[in-house]
Each structure stands twice: as structure tokens, then as C-alpha cells.
Amino acid sequence: MNSNQKKLVTSTVPVLKTNGTDLTKHFYARMFKHHPELKNIFNMSHQASGKQQHALAGAVLAYAEHIENPEVLINVLKPIGNKHVSLNISPDQYDIVGHHLISSIKEVLGEAATDELIEAWTQAYNELAQIMISIEDDLYRSTLKKEGGWKGWRTFVIEEIVEESSEVKSFYLKPKDQGSIADYLPGQYLSVKLFIPGLGHEQVRQYSLSSAFNPKYYRISVKKEVNPNAPEGAVSNVLHQKNTGDEIWVSAPSGVFHAGVDGNQPLVLISGGIGVTPLLSMLETNKNKLQENTTVWLHSCRNEKAHAFKDQIDLLNQDSEWLTTHIFYETVSKNENNAIKEGRIDLAELKDEVLIDDAKYYICGPEVFIKVQYNSLIKLGIAQENILFEEFGPQLLHFN
Ligand SMILES: Cc1cc2nc3c(=O)[nH]c(=O)nc-3n(C[C@H](O)[C@H](O)[C@H](O)COP(=O)(O)OP(=O)(O)OC[C@H]3O[C@@H](n4cnc5c(N)ncnc54)[C@H](O)[C@@H]3O)c2cc1C
Ligand code: HEM
């Protein structure tokens, strides 16, 4: 790209800032019209709520803003690359996206879209696509190199189903081919692909691995999404109706939100609701090594019935001095254990417990929950680089 083309791209940033979401809405409608098969891999509920449009607009805008030095975007592009790899995105699909994105820029900008501007954007998109393809190629290769690693969709059989709370079920998954499975870092997720009868096509969702790695199976734990004011969650409801012996498609473990496996640092784990899953894997993985360090877990959920993995965490807590837990319920019934606190997590109130030298802070839960906990930690003086978080949806929160 020459400097004139870079200037042209940068000059469209203000337009993208005000119209970015319109542009991507137009783009998705156009692309799905020409490639309806892509509805099988895009999350159609995100499309309905506008979340994915926002995420893609954000990525395009970030790229346009940093066109002079796109390498600074690597921290933003890595999680997207991990998500793409877990969806088995291939280089040829970048041509489809590129074609519809550039055509949409033309159609949305109308006369303002000069040939020169369109050429500059085509170059910019191709450069971004090359960076992404290269990140994804590295990720595909490193998974394939692992014992039990694979690329794309592999058939797994549901070996066991365990009810963890009134709304969460764990699924123990074994590969149908009976081969070995790739290990993972605690906090990483799988993508699961299912045919959804109500939609008439497939859908993919991500689920965190909820236990320490066990070479015999993967375990995911899924909350049934029921919403009185909107359609019920497509994939979680179909999964909750599955029986042992049923088959689903699974992609290899992926994701950038993870702890290490050497337990050499104190951990402060902060979860809301189903955000418990990746943190439980971090705790289980490190439990032997963590004994030399402090671990604090703060968890909040609606009430005892909705509290998944309660017994498991109680058990770990009973015979360990290294682990402290603080459980919060929105409503506490009278005959409950008085160690349960009523209300929401207030990190400022618990600062003597959570301010630990050299600790890493992992937050997982709904968007608002993450915002509140992140801001509290910053106010308590925790450095940004020691706070890691994951949203269970398109990653829209960028604090650092
Ligand atoms: C990295 C990662 C890890 C995750 N880990 C876990 C995990 O361990 N456990 C877990 O349970 N989940 C996890 N999730 C969330 C999971 O991927 C799904 O998003 C979740 O199960 C909901 O999917 P669904 O298909 O059931 O619901 P969807 O169909 O995606 O719907 C989601 C919500 O949107 C609403 N909705 C649907 N359609 C519309 C519409 N047209 N208008 C308005 N609202 C609508 C639904 O009512 C529902 O509340 C994770 C997500 C990510 C990204
Ligand atoms: C340079 C080009 C691209 C950019 C900037 C981009 C950007 C993004 C972003 C920001 C997300 C959200 C990440 C997250 O959920 O955390 C995303 C997700 C996704 N991308 Fe891309 N992407 C590109 C190319 C592609 C291509 C070529 C495909 C394949 C057709 C694709 C398919 C998807 C899918 C299916 C998702 C998940 C959607 C969802 O869960 O709602 N993307 N992409």
C-alpha cells in the first residue's frame, strides 16, 4: 500500500465511526443472500441482536486507525484468529468476505466511493486478511502437531450427562474414532456444531472446558438459555435435550483466556453465573501446585438452585488452606449455610482478601459483571496486565 492509499483509508475512519455498523449490517445481508451456507457457521442470534455487526465494525475501524502500524493490533487479532480457527475458517472464505465487504463500501458510500478509495480499501482488506490468515495458519499447524490434535469438525459421542444445577448440565465427550484428544490450557474453549431443527440449519457455539485436562474425555458445562422476552437459546436448548450416545461435532480447543499449568502465581478468580466454567478448569488444573500459593475465588449467582459445582468447590475448600471462597447469592433463603453472602460481589469491601502481591486476576461472567469487577480492580490499584477477562459472546469489551 502506498502512502496516498493509507491516507485515503485513514480519511474514512470518521465515516466508519458513524456508519460502521450500518456498513457491516449491509455487508452481512449481502453476503448471506449470495452465500446462505454461511448461516451454518455465523451465530444467527448475534446477527439478530446486532452484536456481531458491532464486533466486525470495531475490528475494521481499529485496522483503519492503525493502518501505519498494524502490528500493534496483534493483541486484538489473536483472539479473533482463535475464534476463527475454532470455527474452521479457511483462506478462500476471506475472498468471499472481502468481495462483499468492498461491494458494500461502494453501495453504502455511493458517489463518495471513488475508484481510488475502493482500490485503497481493497489493498487494506487484503493486507488485514493476510495477517489473519497467517495467524490462523500458525494456530492450525500448532494444534495439528499436538498428540490427538485435529483440524475442522470431529464427531464426538456424549458419554455422560450430569446435572450441575437447575439450569446447567455437564456433557462428557469422547471422540467417535476412539483416538486420542489434544490437551489444552485451562480457560480454553471448544466449538460445538449442531443441526438446529427450528432453524433448519447448523449453528456453532463455544463452550469452555470445565475441568482439568483428562486424556479420556472433554467436559463442557452448558447453561440452558431461556429468556421470557426473546426466542430461547438455539444451541443450549438443543444440547439440553440430547441423551448419552448422541453425537455432536467438535473443533479442537482454542482461546487466549487461560491460566498456566504450573501454578506458580497466586490466582484471584472472579465469576458470575455460568462464568464459573473456565475458572473451575484453572483451579482443578493447578490444585496441586497452587497449594504453595494463595487462591481466592469469588463467585456470584442468583440462588442456591442455580449454583453449579457447589459441592465440588465446597469439597476442595474443606481440606485446603490455600483456597478461600466467597459465595454471593442474589437471594439467600433462611436455612442456608451462613457462609453465603447476600447481594453482589463488592471487591472494595473485600480488598484485604483480594490484594495479593503478584496475583493474576481472572474474571468471567456477563458483560456488566466484567465491567464492574474490572473497574473495581483498577480502582484498587491492580495493573491492567494482571487482569484477564472473557465475555461469553463476541468480545466487545476492550479495556487495554
Ligand atoms: C469463549 C466462550 C466460552 C463460553 N463458555 C460457555 C460455557 O462454558 N457454558 C455456557 O453455558 N455457555 C458458554 N458460552 C456461551 C455459549 O457459547 C452460547 O452463547 C450460549 O450457550 C447461548 O447459546 P444459545 O444458542 O443457546 O443461545 P442463542 O440462540 O445464541 O441466544 C443467546 C441469547 O440471545 C437471545 N436471543 C436469541 N434470538 C434473539 C433475537 N432474535 N432477539 C433478541 N434476543 C435473542 C436468547 O434468548 C438468548 O438469551 C461461551 C461463549 C464463549 C464465546
Ligand atoms: C479481515 C477479515 C475479518 C475480520 C476483521 C473479522 C473480524 C471478526 C471479529 C471481530 C469477530 C468477533 C470475534 C469474537 O467473537 O470474539 C469475528 C467472528 C467471526 N468471524 Fe470473522 N473476521 C474476518 C473474516 C472472516 C471470514 C473470512 C469468515 C468466514 C466466512 C469469518 C467468520 C466469522 C465467524 C463465523 C465469527 C463468529 C461469529 C459469531 O459467533 O457471531 N470472519 N470476526
TrEMBL record:
Highest taxon in the source lineage? Bacteria
Which terms does the record give in the GO molecular function aspect? nitric oxide dioxygenase NAD(P)H activity
Matching entries from SUPFAM superfamilies are given as: Ferredoxin reductase-like, C-terminal NADP-linked domain (SSF52343), Globin-like (SSF46458), Riboflavin synthase domain-like (SSF63380)
Looking at the record, the residues that make up the Globin domain are 1-137
Name its co-factor(s).
heme b
The family this protein is said to belong to? Belongs to the globin family.
- Protein name, UniProt field: nitric oxide dioxygenase
Mind giving the lineage of the organism this protein is from? Bacteria, Pseudomonadati, Bacteroidota, Flavobacteriia, Flavobacteriales
